[in-house]
Amino acid sequence: MGHLAAACSLRQQLLQRFPDAAVTVEDFPAYVLPNASAALYKFFDLVVTHGSHLFNTYYKLTALGHTDARPPMEGLFLDKLAELLEERRPGAVIATHPLCAQIVSRLKEEVVRKENRYLDLPLITCITDVSSHPEWINHNTDCYLVPSREVERNLEQRGVPAARVCVTGIPVREEFRRPAEKKTGGSHENGEGTELLMMGGGLGLMPGNLSFYETLRQIPNIHITVITGHNEKLFKRLAGRWENVRVLGYVDRVWEYLKQADMIVTKPGGITLFESIYAKVPIFVWPPTLCQECSNARWLLEQGIGWVAERKNCAEDIRRILTDKRSLAQAAACMEQVQRQLEAEAVSRLMEAIAASQEVAA
Asked: Are 204 and 271 in contact (CB under 8 A)?
């Protein structure tokens, strides 16, 4: 879901700059496997939710491998990609998932060998975590959009030419970038009190024990919004239980709730991290369970834009930070500094990347 969100955000940015352009977002695994993609995604959800150790083992093993990884079912993916590109005839391809970047890179290799020049397109890879795992790196990538200087340096250490790397941050929707209106904060219609937003990604991975929320709701003059995503079990467990706790299921306008918050408590996903930065809302993240989340959490601490829980039962830590207005203000100020560094050049660098990539392909 994060990869799809990044793709939609890039589409929005491109259309704002070039309103007459044709920019299409394609869920490529669903395009290739229309009857099996739902089951595939469900399996991945189960692995992330209940078998993170398996995912991390795979992640660590592949981190030791080489770049230009050969994806599974390569032949099928290559055929379907050639079919898609021949049908759409795009001027460039932007990949927001490593599998897609791998497949496009492999196809470009085949194109050169078979001299099918109409498929020799610029490939721009948008990395959606603050990490430089080799699965993202492919020889036939013309440009990388990366979230931070750290990732830029890591790619250069892996042999990627500096000219092919642009630090743009992770793309977020324009709505997160707009200045927030005066905070009304749920039950605090006069703007007083503290507004806490809690999320667990699309899967709603959050604590299930009631005592956790009971501790937080007793903070003086607080209002809490809990977004449970697709976690229906948690929604039913929490909904309507406390007057100052609003519980929502899956929402697609997260910015409306985020920009009203004084702090967000969530998973350390790359997309959510940068959404919080642009909304200037300090972020407190659950203990990371996936390897790429650990990289995101480490970067968060280095930038001074939030906090990382050391244990699952972190209600008292959240209470302590929420009552420390100075720390919240410092984190928000650091977020504004990070945003200024990125925002001034992010869109222009994206345009330059596309232009440069087209020159490379030509």
From this structure: no
Q: In Å, what is the CA distance from 73 to each residue of 4, 23, 66, 85?
A: 21, 27, 19, 18
User: What are the residues facing 247 on neighbouring strands?
Assistant: 226
Distance CA 147, CA 273 (A): 11
Q: For residue 187, how many other CB atoms are within 10 A of its CB? A: 15
User: What does the pLDDT look like over 306-340, one tens digit per residue?
Assistant: 999 988 889 999 999 999 999 999 999 999 999 88
E-strand stretches of 158-277: 165-167, 194-199, 222-227, 245-248, 263-266
d(CA 94, CA 254): 24
Among 249, 294, 250, smallest CA distance to 268 is for 294
Query: Do the strands 283-285 and 306-308 form a parallel or antiparallel pair, or are they unpaired?
Result: parallel
- Number of alpha helices (DSSP H) and beta strands (DSSP E) in the chain: 16, 10
Burial class, 215, CB count within 10 angstroms (exposed 0-12 / middle 13-18 / buried 19+): middle
pLDDT tens digits, one per residue of 40-59: 877 777 777 777 788 778 77
Distance CA 193, CA 207 (A): 24
The arithmetic mean of pLDDT across residues 272-286, rounded, is 94
Q: What is the pTM of this model?
A: 0.84
Q: What is the pLDDT of residues 97-129, one digit of tens each?
A: 999 999 999 998 876 555 555 567 889 999 999
User: Which residues of 11-122 form beta strands (DSSP E)?
Assistant: 93-95
Are 274 and 170 contacting, i.e. CB atoms less than 8 angstroms apart? yes
- Tokens for 341, please give them: 């560094």
